[in-house]
Design goal:
The chain is mainly alpha-helical. The chain is built from five helices and no strands. The radius of gyration is 16 Å and the shape is globular.
Length: 144
């Protein structure tokens, strides 16, 4: 999903002239692994939360995931806002990406508890992830 949103749909927002607070493309690229590491920590916390409140229903998992994503997005925006300038569009797009990613994580994590056939679910999730990645690359090529 991250490739679909950040390298595809919202690619034009990563323009240093439009967003003067952004790092150079080279610096952004070098920091991507750190961002994914932070996402891994957040999704691990979400998994712990879903287990702690015993969520096995997919709709509830999506809701808890989206709420967790919204919490992290608001925290991140406030933290960044104290140090750098950001346009409202950049803030909104970034927040929507975080919310969508955590809602998807909530869906996947709760689906594994709700659906007994883990192998079939895994194949479906991998197919959806591949389609999101391909769509992101397609959109990226359309934009330039």
């Amino acid at each position: 999903m991250d490739l679909f949103f950040n390298a595809g749909v919202f690619m034009s927002l990563f323009d240093q002239e439009r967003e003067p607070g952004l790092l150079s493309d080279e610096q952004l690229f070098r920091r991507i692994p750190l961002a994914y590491s932070a996402l891994l920590v957040g999704v691990t916390a979400l998994a712990w939360l879903l287990d702690g409140i015993d969520v096995a229903d997919v709709r509830r998992g999506i809701g808890v995931g989206a709420l967790t994503g919204a919490t992290f997005a608001v925290m991140g925006v406030v933290f960044l806002w104290t140090a750098i300038e950001m346009t409202g569009v950049f803030v909104l797009a970034g927040s929507l990406v975080v919310i969508a990613e955590y809602a998807a994580a909530g869906w996947v994590l709760s689906a594994f508890r709700d659906i007994p056939n883990a192998a079939l679910l895994t194949r479906r999730i991998l197919l959806i992830a591949l389609l999101f990645a391909l769509a992101g690359m397609f959109i990226q090529n359309l934009q330039g």
